[in-house]
# Entry
Amino acid sequence: MQSTLKSSIFQPFKPILLVLFTIWLSGCGLAETESTGQTDQSVGGALAADINAKANLSVVSSINNGISVWSLQQNRQKFNFRHAGEGDNLVTNLDISYDGLYLLSADQEAFGLWDLTVGEPVGFWRIDESSIRDIAVSNKGLAILIGKSNGKVMYIEPQTGRRLEFLGHSEKINSVDLSPNGNYALTGGNDYVAYLWDTRTGQIVYTFRHTSRVSTVLLDEYGRYALTADSKDQSIIWDLTTGLKISELEYFERQKILTAGKFSQDGKYLLTGSPSRSLDLWDVVSGERVKQYKVGIRPEATMPTAMVHGVDYLDEQQMMSLSSSGYAEVWNLPTP
# Structure
Protein backbone atom coordinates (compact mmCIF):
# COMPACT_ATOMS: atom_id res chain seq x y z
CA MET A 1 0.00 0.00 0.00
CA GLN A 2 2.79 2.39 0.88
CA SER A 3 4.72 1.77 -2.34
CA THR A 4 1.55 2.18 -4.44
CA LEU A 5 0.76 5.49 -2.76
CA LYS A 6 4.32 6.77 -3.23
CA SER A 7 4.19 5.84 -6.91
CA SER A 8 0.86 7.61 -7.45
CA ILE A 9 2.17 10.78 -5.81
CA PHE A 10 5.33 11.09 -7.87
CA GLN A 11 4.13 9.70 -11.21
CA PRO A 12 2.37 12.90 -12.43
CA PHE A 13 5.51 14.96 -11.89
CA LYS A 14 7.86 12.89 -14.04
CA PRO A 15 6.97 14.52 -17.37
CA ILE A 16 7.30 17.97 -15.83
CA LEU A 17 10.72 17.18 -14.39
CA LEU A 18 11.80 15.78 -17.76
CA VAL A 19 10.70 18.97 -19.53
CA LEU A 20 12.53 21.14 -17.00
CA PHE A 21 15.69 19.08 -17.38
CA THR A 22 15.47 19.35 -21.17
CA ILE A 23 15.04 23.12 -20.94
CA TRP A 24 18.06 23.35 -18.64
CA LEU A 25 20.22 21.36 -21.08
CA SER A 26 19.10 23.33 -24.10
CA GLY A 27 19.55 26.67 -22.34
CA CYS A 28 23.00 26.04 -20.89
CA GLY A 29 24.55 23.42 -23.12
CA LEU A 30 27.52 21.37 -22.06
CA ALA A 31 30.59 23.12 -20.71
CA GLU A 32 33.53 23.19 -23.11
CA THR A 33 36.60 21.52 -21.60
CA GLU A 34 39.11 21.50 -24.46
CA SER A 35 41.02 24.77 -24.83
CA THR A 36 42.72 25.71 -28.10
CA GLY A 37 46.04 26.32 -26.34
CA GLN A 38 47.58 25.82 -22.92
CA THR A 39 50.77 27.14 -21.29
CA ASP A 40 52.02 26.16 -17.85
CA GLN A 41 52.96 29.51 -16.30
CA SER A 42 53.31 28.24 -12.75
CA VAL A 43 54.47 24.68 -12.15
CA GLY A 44 52.85 23.53 -8.94
CA GLY A 45 49.94 25.97 -9.12
CA ALA A 46 49.20 29.66 -8.59
CA LEU A 47 48.12 31.71 -5.57
CA ALA A 48 46.95 34.63 -7.72
CA ALA A 49 47.06 35.79 -11.34
CA ASP A 50 45.99 38.58 -13.69
CA ILE A 51 45.88 39.08 -17.48
CA ASN A 52 46.14 42.22 -19.61
CA ALA A 53 45.87 41.07 -23.20
CA LYS A 54 46.11 44.58 -24.69
CA ALA A 55 49.50 44.96 -23.01
CA ASN A 56 50.47 41.39 -23.98
CA LEU A 57 51.04 40.49 -20.32
CA SER A 58 50.05 38.00 -17.69
CA VAL A 59 51.31 37.76 -14.11
CA VAL A 60 51.31 34.79 -11.75
CA SER A 61 52.14 34.40 -8.05
CA SER A 62 53.31 31.04 -6.73
CA ILE A 63 54.74 29.89 -3.41
CA ASN A 64 58.10 28.71 -4.73
CA ASN A 65 58.70 30.97 -7.73
CA GLY A 66 57.52 34.37 -6.47
CA ILE A 67 55.79 36.70 -8.96
CA SER A 68 56.35 35.95 -12.64
CA VAL A 69 55.47 38.35 -15.48
CA TRP A 70 54.89 36.68 -18.85
CA SER A 71 54.83 37.91 -22.44
CA LEU A 72 51.75 36.37 -24.04
CA GLN A 73 52.96 36.89 -27.59
CA GLN A 74 56.39 35.38 -27.01
CA ASN A 75 55.10 32.84 -24.50
CA ARG A 76 58.01 33.38 -22.13
CA GLN A 77 58.75 34.83 -18.71
CA LYS A 78 59.93 38.46 -18.80
CA PHE A 79 60.47 39.32 -15.11
CA ASN A 80 60.45 37.65 -11.72
CA PHE A 81 59.83 39.51 -8.43
CA ARG A 82 59.74 38.74 -4.73
CA HIS A 83 58.30 40.69 -1.84
CA ALA A 84 60.83 39.09 0.49
CA GLY A 85 64.29 37.83 -0.32
CA GLU A 86 63.98 34.36 1.13
CA GLY A 87 61.23 31.96 2.13
CA ASP A 88 57.86 31.19 0.60
CA ASN A 89 56.09 33.80 -1.50
CA LEU A 90 52.66 34.56 0.02
CA VAL A 91 51.37 37.16 -2.46
CA THR A 92 47.66 36.43 -2.95
CA ASN A 93 46.57 39.63 -4.73
CA LEU A 94 47.75 40.96 -8.10
CA ASP A 95 46.45 43.75 -10.33
CA ILE A 96 47.86 44.98 -13.64
CA SER A 97 46.93 48.58 -14.49
CA TYR A 98 44.63 49.00 -17.50
CA ASP A 99 47.45 50.57 -19.54
CA GLY A 100 49.71 47.62 -18.69
CA LEU A 101 52.51 49.78 -17.34
CA TYR A 102 52.32 48.92 -13.62
CA LEU A 103 51.65 45.96 -11.36
CA LEU A 104 50.36 46.08 -7.80
CA SER A 105 51.02 43.04 -5.60
CA ALA A 106 50.11 42.29 -1.99
CA ASP A 107 50.27 39.70 0.72
CA GLN A 108 48.30 40.17 3.95
CA GLU A 109 50.71 42.69 5.47
CA ALA A 110 52.41 44.63 2.65
CA PHE A 111 51.99 45.76 -0.94
CA GLY A 112 54.40 46.69 -3.70
CA LEU A 113 54.19 48.71 -6.91
CA TRP A 114 56.24 47.55 -9.92
CA ASP A 115 57.19 49.26 -13.20
CA LEU A 116 56.45 46.66 -15.88
CA THR A 117 58.43 48.48 -18.58
CA VAL A 118 61.72 47.75 -16.80
CA GLY A 119 60.77 45.14 -14.22
CA GLU A 120 61.82 47.26 -11.25
CA PRO A 121 60.03 48.13 -7.95
CA VAL A 122 58.61 51.62 -7.46
CA GLY A 123 57.96 51.22 -3.75
CA PHE A 124 56.85 49.01 -0.88
CA TRP A 125 54.39 49.83 1.87
CA ARG A 126 53.40 47.97 5.03
CA ILE A 127 50.01 48.49 6.66
CA ASP A 128 49.95 49.11 10.40
CA GLU A 129 46.56 47.61 11.26
CA SER A 130 44.32 44.70 10.19
CA SER A 131 45.17 42.80 6.98
CA ILE A 132 44.94 43.35 3.23
CA ARG A 133 41.91 41.79 1.52
CA ASP A 134 42.02 43.16 -2.03
CA ILE A 135 43.89 45.70 -4.17
CA ALA A 136 43.62 47.79 -7.36
CA VAL A 137 45.89 50.18 -9.29
CA SER A 138 45.13 52.94 -11.82
CA ASN A 139 46.84 53.81 -15.10
CA LYS A 140 50.46 55.00 -14.82
CA GLY A 141 50.50 53.72 -11.22
CA LEU A 142 49.17 57.09 -10.06
CA ALA A 143 46.60 55.68 -7.61
CA ILE A 144 46.43 52.60 -5.38
CA LEU A 145 43.39 51.16 -3.59
CA ILE A 146 43.68 48.80 -0.60
CA GLY A 147 40.68 47.04 0.98
CA LYS A 148 41.27 45.90 4.56
CA SER A 149 39.78 43.42 7.00
CA ASN A 150 38.77 46.17 9.45
CA GLY A 151 36.28 47.61 6.95
CA LYS A 152 38.47 50.54 5.88
CA VAL A 153 39.56 51.28 2.32
CA MET A 154 42.83 53.14 1.79
CA TYR A 155 43.43 55.30 -1.31
CA ILE A 156 47.03 56.35 -2.00
CA GLU A 157 48.73 58.47 -4.67
CA PRO A 158 52.39 57.34 -4.56
CA GLN A 159 53.80 60.32 -6.47
CA THR A 160 52.01 63.08 -4.54
CA GLY A 161 51.79 61.34 -1.16
CA ARG A 162 48.06 62.07 -0.91
CA ARG A 163 46.08 59.58 1.19
CA LEU A 164 42.37 59.16 1.81
CA GLU A 165 40.62 56.62 4.03
CA PHE A 166 37.07 55.61 3.07
CA LEU A 167 35.01 54.70 6.14
CA GLY A 168 31.65 53.93 4.51
CA HIS A 169 31.72 50.21 5.24
CA SER A 170 30.92 48.77 8.66
CA GLU A 171 32.46 45.32 8.18
CA LYS A 172 35.31 43.50 6.43
CA ILE A 173 36.13 44.48 2.84
CA ASN A 174 36.10 41.60 0.35
CA SER A 175 36.67 43.21 -3.05
CA VAL A 176 37.77 46.55 -4.55
CA ASP A 177 38.23 48.03 -8.02
CA LEU A 178 39.46 51.34 -9.38
CA SER A 179 38.64 53.24 -12.60
CA PRO A 180 41.55 53.59 -15.06
CA ASN A 181 41.98 57.30 -14.19
CA GLY A 182 41.78 56.56 -10.46
CA ASN A 183 38.86 58.97 -9.89
CA TYR A 184 36.30 56.34 -8.88
CA ALA A 185 36.43 53.34 -6.57
CA LEU A 186 34.02 50.42 -6.21
CA THR A 187 34.19 48.55 -2.92
CA GLY A 188 32.16 45.70 -1.40
CA GLY A 189 32.14 44.00 1.98
CA ASN A 190 30.49 41.85 4.61
CA ASP A 191 27.96 44.60 5.38
CA TYR A 192 25.89 43.53 2.30
CA VAL A 193 26.73 46.78 0.49
CA ALA A 194 28.86 47.91 -2.45
CA TYR A 195 29.69 51.60 -2.86
CA LEU A 196 30.82 53.52 -5.90
CA TRP A 197 32.63 56.56 -4.54
CA ASP A 198 34.69 59.52 -5.75
CA THR A 199 38.34 59.25 -4.68
CA ARG A 200 38.81 63.02 -5.04
CA THR A 201 36.18 63.85 -2.42
CA GLY A 202 35.40 60.59 -0.63
CA GLN A 203 31.71 61.11 -1.46
CA ILE A 204 29.45 58.16 -2.33
CA VAL A 205 28.05 58.23 -5.88
CA TYR A 206 25.92 55.06 -5.82
CA THR A 207 24.96 52.50 -3.18
CA PHE A 208 24.33 48.94 -4.38
CA ARG A 209 22.60 46.73 -1.78
CA HIS A 210 22.57 42.94 -1.54
CA THR A 211 20.94 40.34 0.71
CA SER A 212 24.24 38.77 1.74
CA ARG A 213 27.91 39.74 1.91
CA VAL A 214 29.31 41.28 -1.27
CA SER A 215 32.13 39.00 -2.38
CA THR A 216 33.12 40.51 -5.76
CA VAL A 217 33.00 43.94 -7.42
CA LEU A 218 34.12 44.92 -10.92
CA LEU A 219 34.26 48.15 -12.92
CA ASP A 220 34.05 48.28 -16.70
CA GLU A 221 37.20 50.02 -17.92
CA TYR A 222 35.11 52.06 -20.38
CA GLY A 223 32.95 53.52 -17.61
CA ARG A 224 29.66 51.92 -18.68
CA TYR A 225 28.99 49.16 -16.16
CA ALA A 226 29.64 47.84 -12.68
CA LEU A 227 29.24 44.30 -11.40
CA THR A 228 28.48 43.49 -7.78
CA ALA A 229 28.09 39.87 -6.67
CA ASP A 230 27.25 38.40 -3.28
CA SER A 231 28.01 35.08 -1.60
CA LYS A 232 24.61 33.50 -2.32
CA ASP A 233 22.70 33.98 -5.55
CA GLN A 234 22.82 37.61 -6.67
CA SER A 235 25.23 38.91 -9.32
CA ILE A 236 24.02 42.22 -10.71
CA ILE A 237 25.18 44.40 -13.62
CA TRP A 238 24.55 48.13 -13.06
CA ASP A 239 24.39 51.10 -15.41
CA LEU A 240 26.97 53.63 -14.21
CA THR A 241 25.23 56.56 -15.94
CA THR A 242 22.01 56.04 -13.94
CA GLY A 243 22.91 53.70 -11.06
CA LEU A 244 20.05 51.40 -12.12
CA LYS A 245 20.14 47.64 -12.58
CA ILE A 246 20.64 46.41 -16.14
CA SER A 247 20.43 42.67 -15.49
CA GLU A 248 21.00 39.90 -13.00
CA LEU A 249 23.11 36.91 -14.02
CA GLU A 250 20.95 33.83 -14.51
CA TYR A 251 22.41 30.57 -13.20
CA PHE A 252 21.13 27.33 -11.72
CA GLU A 253 23.82 26.92 -9.07
CA ARG A 254 22.68 27.52 -5.50
CA GLN A 255 25.82 29.57 -4.97
CA LYS A 256 27.95 31.22 -7.65
CA ILE A 257 31.09 32.86 -6.27
CA LEU A 258 32.91 34.99 -8.84
CA THR A 259 36.70 35.31 -8.63
CA ALA A 260 37.54 37.20 -11.83
CA GLY A 261 35.75 39.26 -14.48
CA LYS A 262 36.07 41.47 -17.56
CA PHE A 263 33.54 43.34 -19.72
CA SER A 264 34.06 43.12 -23.48
CA GLN A 265 35.10 46.19 -25.46
CA ASP A 266 31.83 46.25 -27.41
CA GLY A 267 29.85 46.13 -24.16
CA LYS A 268 27.87 43.03 -25.11
CA TYR A 269 29.48 40.46 -22.83
CA LEU A 270 30.79 39.85 -19.34
CA LEU A 271 33.41 37.14 -18.85
CA THR A 272 33.73 35.70 -15.32
CA GLY A 273 35.70 33.04 -13.50
CA SER A 274 34.75 30.96 -10.45
CA PRO A 275 36.38 28.60 -7.93
CA SER A 276 34.84 25.47 -9.49
CA ARG A 277 36.83 25.55 -12.78
CA SER A 278 34.05 27.61 -14.36
CA LEU A 279 34.68 30.21 -17.04
CA ASP A 280 31.38 31.82 -18.04
CA LEU A 281 30.38 34.24 -20.79
CA TRP A 282 27.24 36.31 -20.07
CA ASP A 283 25.00 38.57 -22.10
CA VAL A 284 25.11 41.98 -20.39
CA VAL A 285 21.57 43.09 -21.29
CA SER A 286 19.71 39.84 -20.51
CA GLY A 287 21.99 38.31 -17.88
CA GLU A 288 21.78 34.96 -19.68
CA ARG A 289 24.76 32.63 -19.81
CA VAL A 290 25.95 32.43 -23.41
CA LYS A 291 28.62 29.76 -22.92
CA GLN A 292 30.38 27.88 -20.13
CA TYR A 293 33.91 26.47 -20.14
CA LYS A 294 35.86 24.35 -17.64
CA VAL A 295 39.53 25.20 -17.12
CA GLY A 296 42.17 22.50 -16.87
CA ILE A 297 43.43 20.84 -13.70
CA ARG A 298 46.87 19.42 -12.98
CA PRO A 299 47.22 15.63 -13.34
CA GLU A 300 48.79 15.40 -9.88
CA ALA A 301 46.13 17.57 -8.18
CA THR A 302 44.64 16.02 -5.04
CA MET A 303 41.33 17.80 -5.69
CA PRO A 304 39.87 17.79 -9.23
CA THR A 305 39.19 21.51 -9.37
CA ALA A 306 40.81 24.90 -9.99
CA MET A 307 40.00 28.52 -9.20
CA VAL A 308 39.96 30.98 -12.10
CA HIS A 309 42.16 33.94 -11.08
CA GLY A 310 42.34 36.01 -14.28
CA VAL A 311 40.38 36.44 -17.52
CA ASP A 312 40.61 38.66 -20.62
CA TYR A 313 39.65 38.86 -24.30
CA LEU A 314 42.50 38.32 -26.75
CA ASP A 315 40.45 39.59 -29.71
CA GLU A 316 36.93 39.20 -31.12
CA GLN A 317 37.38 35.45 -31.57
CA GLN A 318 39.34 34.30 -28.51
CA MET A 319 39.76 34.81 -24.77
CA MET A 320 42.18 33.64 -22.09
CA SER A 321 41.95 32.32 -18.55
CA LEU A 322 44.60 31.83 -15.86
CA SER A 323 43.75 29.57 -12.96
CA SER A 324 45.15 28.17 -9.72
CA SER A 325 46.37 25.16 -11.71
CA GLY A 326 48.96 27.53 -13.21
CA TYR A 327 47.62 27.03 -16.73
CA ALA A 328 47.06 29.95 -19.10
CA GLU A 329 44.43 28.69 -21.54
CA VAL A 330 43.02 30.10 -24.78
CA TRP A 331 39.35 29.58 -25.64
CA ASN A 332 37.23 30.28 -28.69
CA LEU A 333 34.42 32.76 -28.25
CA PRO A 334 31.01 31.69 -29.63
CA THR A 335 30.38 32.74 -33.20
CA PRO A 336 27.44 35.17 -33.67
About this structure: The two ends are 56 Å apart (CA to CA).
